[in-house]
Specification:
Rossmann fold; globular; homodimer; alpha/beta
Chain lengths: 235, 235
């Protein structure tokens, strides 16, 4: 068995990615990065998901990206709500965090080197997040090339780093079906950009809408805990 | 005037790099990343250096790399002392922090995008730190290529990211002479891997020895504050 590092936010995509890596036979080292956007409950949920899916270890790295700002997720910019799919696709959204996946993968690379892993899994998706430059295959391939130049492990040539994004071309409904097949408990995952301290979703941000539509398209019940004030229905 | 982000640890190399970027006419946004290795006094010194050299802003980002370990600088491994130059050059040292410059440059890239900068300066040096894979020109070039794929700013094509490492091929003595020419006050810089809470250097770690030899080779007085217990003399 080889070791793999899996970036785990605790949402649908990263949880399914973890289950996928495990199903391939990897010893999974889960890594959650809290860049200032996460409530404690979401990190606890990530830990719970890592454990329930059989990860060997789970680490949480805190990085204070509020210090550099530039995103609705780390700044005081409002998270947009009730947007249509075409509005979401029209431009890179304010929830874009500058250089987010570069930073996340950089930390994952450091963790990989520490645990002797050459395989890094990320739940990046180029369909739902068409506007995010760092969710594209070209970016992920460039990061893997960088990783082999960047590290003691890469330079010593004991292996070649690879960045795996098994969900990159799947629809949200396909991801949900794959997750259910791999026994991911989606009732424990948190996707919302504005979840409250209990992990309850707003139901209105882009992430909530994509998630809700995904369950509808997959024809399975939506197990999400919405806040009582949340809109319950455009799916 | 263009904006530039300069990674500033507050040591000789990064302080000289900041002065160099300023001398080229950039508006400088200094960024210090505290990955668990720095005393408060060192960050205060970095802030003081940024201000004295005319940076427009200085941000400090805290990232808890202790959570992933793997280095004498973030872990409970002892920092080696009293090593000869050939011992230092023989292998990648235990002070190597896994994926350090990938993480630092990733954060710098996020800050650059936030302030509208396409130029990132880093005090990397391929002579003194021959053993660090992420201080090599090939790594820095690969990071710049990645940056243009990774970001909204890069994808929108308003500019091309560049990573500048003006000290990459200079000896420590050359760096010191360049810093003095640019009015860097080296008495305020902290280099030591094991500085105390007053910023006083141990005089024995690899970083201290390279620094001390640099002042000797440059034929200028060493303004470093050593701890009273520090060895005062192999230069």
């Amino acid at each position: 068995m080889s070791n793999a590092v899996v970036l785990l936010s605790g949402g649908i995509d990263s949880s399914t990615t973890l289950a996928h890596a495990k199903s391939l036979g990897y010893d999974v080292y889960a890594l959650s990065v809290n860049y200032g956007q996460r409530h404690r409950v979401e990190l606890d949920r990530a830990a719970e998901i890592a454990k329930s899916l059989g990860a060997k270890d789970h680490r949480i790295v805190r990085i204070d990206l509020l210090a550099i700002g530039g995103s609705a997720l780390t700044d005081s910019i409002d998270v947009p709500v009730d947007r249509t799919a075409s509005e979401m696709a029209a431009a890179i959204p304010v929830t874009y965090v500058p250089a987010r996946n570069t930073i996340l993968l950089g930390i994952a690379l450091g963790y990989a080197e520490t645990v002797g892993a050459f395989d890094i899994f990320i739940g990046a998706n180029s369909l739902d997040y068409a506007g995010y430059p760092d969710c594209r295959p070209a970016f992920l391939d460039a990061f893997a090339a960088l990783a082999n130049l960047a590290t003691k492990a890469g330079v010593e040539g004991k292996g070649r780093f690879q960045v795996h994004a098994p969900l990159i071309r799947l629809t949200k409904a396909e991801i949900i079906r794959e997750g259910l097949r791999l026994n991911v408990d989606f009732s424990r995952t948190v996707t919302c950009y504005d979840a409250d301290q209990h992990g309850h979703a707003c139901g209105r941000c882009d992430a909530c809408q994509l998630r809700r539509a995904g369950f509808a398209d997959a024809n399975v019940p939506d197990p999400t805990s919405y806040r009582t004030s949340a809109k319950s229905g455009n799916s």
